[in-house]
Amino acid sequence: MLILAHLSVRNEHASQIGYWDENFVGWGEEDIDFSFRLYRSGLTPIHLISDKAASFHLEHHIDHETNTFTLKRNGRYLLGKFPELAEYRKEAYARHDVNIDDLS
After folding, report:
1. Which residues make Cβ contacts (< 8 Å) with residue 4, sequence separation at least 6?
2. For the chain, what percent of residues have pLDDT higher than 70?
């Protein structure tokens, strides 16, 4: 599975999977959903390594309480769509003090 920091994908492939699922609101899991649907459609990620590529993250305020709330809601939604991802997401949820068993 692909964890996103930077992703480029052809529009035709994004269209094929229905683009971003707008039922994800707030922070968390929309990128996992998108990448998993690309993977299920038969695409395989290619990892490009180049000293000429750069990715920037803009600094911004992080509201951990709100992020945890939306992660729980989005996690519940994601695992409802794809229960097979539960084992893969368990550790990621734990890093945010979210017990995956509480999402069912």
Report:
1. 31, 34, 35
2. 95
- Predicted confidence (pLDDT) per residue in 10-33, tens digit: 999 999 999 999 999 999 999 999
Dig out the tokens for 61 from the structure.
Answer: 């305020």
Measured distance CA(102)–CA(104) in Å, rounded: 6
Helices vs. strands in the chain: H and E counts, helices first: 4, 0
Cα–Cα dist 4/68, whole Å: 19
Gap between the Cα atoms of 100 and 29, Å rounded = 13
**Which two tokens mark 68?**
């945890």
Q: Which residue has the tokens 């949820």?
A: 93
